[in-house]
Amino acid sequence: MAIHGDWPDAVVVAYSPSSAAVATGLKLHRIQSAIRDGSLRAVRVGTKTRLTRTSIEAWLDAMPSAKRATVGVPHAQP
């Protein structure tokens, strides 16, 4: 849970694209591309672009899962 400034109980529910990149560990360019192609829903608040936590989570959940690497992992015996 992220805390914000003078409101210790506040939870961040909307992010700027750069904050979303930091929060997800992705490059800003990837976030901006997803906004442009419509796969990541963004809203405008005045002149600012904001991403809700739920839209970021939905976008991440819709991404294909990475296949689990099996190199060095013993196979289960039947």
Biggest β-sheet strands, sense, barrel = 3 strands, antiparallel
* Strand runs, count: 3
Q: List low-pLDDT spans.
A: 72-76
* Net shape: globular
**What percentage of residues falls in helices of 4 or more residues?**
25-40%
Distance between the termini: 43 Å
Number of helices: 3
Quote the average pLDDT. 82
Order of helices and strands: EHHEEH
Task: Compile the SSE list and pairings.
Elements: E1 14-15, H1 17-24, H2 28-37, E2 43-45, E3 48-52, H3 53-62
Using brief descriptors, characterize the structure shown:
78 residues, alpha+beta, 36% helix, 13% strand, disordered C terminus
Would you kindly provide a written description of the structure presented here, covering whatever features stand out?
Residues 72-76 have low confidence and may be disordered. The chain has helices at 17-24, 28-37, 53-62, and strands spanning 14-15, 43-45, 48-52. It has a three-stranded antiparallel β-sheet. The chain contains three helices and three strands, in the order βααββα. It has a domain at 14-62. It has 78 residues and is of the alpha+beta class.
